[in-house]
Amino acid sequence: MTELARSAPPIPPPSARQVERAIRLTYAQMMLGAVFAASTGGMFLIGFAMRLGADNILLGLLATVPQFFVVFQFLAAFRVERQWSRKRLTVVFALMAPVCWFLIAAIPFFEPVLGLPARFAVLIGVIILVTVAAQFAGNARGSWLGELIPAERRGRFFGYCSMFAGIVGAAFAVAEGGFLDLVESRGLFAFTALFLFGSLFGLTAAALNLPQPDCPLPGVGAPRPFARLLRETLGNRALVTLAIVHAVLALGSVAAPFNAAYLLRDVGLSFFGLGLLNSVFVAAMLLTSPLWGRLVDRFGCRPVLTLGLSVMAPCGLVWLAIPPKAATMAYWLLPWTNFLCGAGAAAMNVAITTMMYKVSRPEGRSVQFAAYSIFISVVSAPMPLVGGWLVTTLEHAGYAVDLRLTFYLWVAFVLTAAVLSRLLREADSLRTRTLVFQYFPARLAALLGLGTAVPFDADDPLGNNKGNGV
């Protein structure tokens, strides 16, 4: 098959018309994929696991074990660099992920004959398959987009992707939360219906890869040795620095499975209520992502990343005021902090995604992306299990702690990542303090009709502010 891939006729570069069509189809994919993600992940997967009987440690295990299988990205990158079609790889493995969710949806039918260990082993096993499929599809698609989307439009492109996905994801999360509350008497079979529904949208999103044009791999000639591509990746100082910052941020996954668990089980929120609160977070992302995309294209990724992380970090302290059984307090406080955190997360997502393309080389990009993702995932993979074990151990030792301990650890990791982001080097980027104290006040003054509040050259925003200091 490798020889067939090498001897296949060369792939012509896509035309401008094909690129525009692919961008529109990708936006549609983002919205369909958001329904799939909203229906199968997050609070619904955690709720399903708790219905199966999972405790804090098992919830941590569910989030930890699959992450070690991101190493399959190296196999995906190896195939891409051996001249395999990135479009074909994307289509095949993007279809696999929703198909695997049909298996998860079938677990309630076997509940009478499966004990908790067996049910949970099946769940983790299928999630591992989903993870492997996602690594292949994500690596191939990421490399494919590197040539499909013009460099000067990537910030806006990823910003709009986040916005469109956010709109649809938020709406369906709320509606599906209400659905689960209404059919709660159906037990696990309510989740079966939800997972099957979401999987249909996932299959449709995967199918939309078919009409998009494939792109030739950068560099013509015999594939370079994989080991050499990997050494070049490790020698890419800018990419390595970004990976370290991202890895520290990813350590915040210590709290990943416990936000929904704490609000559903300890605070007492309904699925509909949790969906409403999560929709505020998503609404903030969708409202601000296009803005961050434009700022990234105009001023650089680093200042936007630093600002986004700095906004996110303090939001976790709101949990000090939301003890167990305080549902009313949660409804009062979380909308405000979720909005701020969503805006910060949008800045972080757009900045990191765009900067990955900026600091990676087109040749061997699939290997660079694979090494980047594997490093981050392997470093952070044990953290959910560590979080569940830590809370359970301290509770058994008689300490007055609960799952909020993991949220405070998340604050520490995000704040550390914000500080480390100052180490990133990006040519012609704006200083973060200039963005905060000059650009935003000037734009606000212009919107209010007050003129320019501070000296700021809108036509030459970088001016003498070029540099990497904060």
Set down the secondary structure blueprint.
Blueprint: H1 2-7, H2 16-40, H3 42-52, H4 56-64, H5 72-81, H6 86-105, H7 116-148, H8 154-182, H9 188-207, H10 226-234, H11 237-250, H12 258-267, H13 271-299, H14 301-312, H15 327-359, H16 365-380, H17 383-396, H18 404-420, H19 432-447
Helix pairs in contact: 2-8, 2-9, 3-12, 4-17, 5-7, 5-16, 6-7, 6-9, 7-16, 8-13, 8-15, 11-15, 11-16, 11-18, 13-14, 13-15, 14-15, 14-18, 14-19
Describe the protein's architecture and organization.
- The protein starts with a helix and ends in a 23-residue tail after the last helix.
- The protein folds into 2 domains: 13-212 and 230-424, Up-down Bundle (Growth Hormone, Chain: A); 433-470, no CATH class.
- It has 470 residues and is an all-alpha fold.
- It is globular and about 55 Å long.
- Helix 8 packs antiparallel against helix 15 (327-359).
- It contains 19 helices and no strands.
- Residues 1-8 and 452-470 have low confidence and may be disordered.
- It has helices spanning 2-7, 16-40, 42-52, 56-64, 72-81, 86-105, 116-148, 154-182, 188-207, 226-234, 237-250, 258-267, 271-299, 301-312, 327-359, 365-380, 383-396, 404-420, 432-447.
